[in-house]
Amino acid sequence: MKAYKRILIALIAVAITFSLAGAPAFAVQDDVSVNVSIVVFGEEFDSQTVTLESGSTVYDLVNVVYGDLEPVWETVPDFQYPNVTYEALFSLGGYESEYVDYYYDDDTGHYVYVSNDWIYTVDGDRPTEERPGVDFSIQQYMDQYVIQNGDVIVLDYDTWYEQVEF
Known about the structure:
Layout: H1 2-21, E1 32-40, E2 43-52, H2 58-65, E3 72-77, E4 85-92, E5 95-96, E6 98-105, E7 110-122, E8 128-129, E9 138-139, E10 152-164
Parallel strand pairs: 1-10
Antiparallel strand pairs: 1-2, 3-4, 4-5, 6-7, 7-10, 8-9
């Protein structure tokens, strides 16, 4: 009986300690606040600071903040793991992704894919990931990047020139 009382007292002491300390180990993370802008062919159309739930992705941001611009998403397979899919922003506010050109650049010895597309940057960079067996960085889709508090996100529609590696 004495051992039972000691264990009970110890558990109560732990519970009181966590309640007084705010129990950060078990706390739900706060919402995140980010600045987001839309740029079309170099002209900024919108810039605002928004608050989203912790764990939100850029995909979530587009759907929540710019849902009135009727975003259209296209499910695309991962080039390395085809059973894994991502969501690519195909259209927002009437600006659709479209193929423009594909050519061989004699100067670089690479093919270049030209398109009008939506890309995004976070704090001025395009989020990428490294993978074993792949000798180049892979750009993350909008549903892959988890937004961090204070991020500056730009949704940018423009003509893009992407060098294609073979």
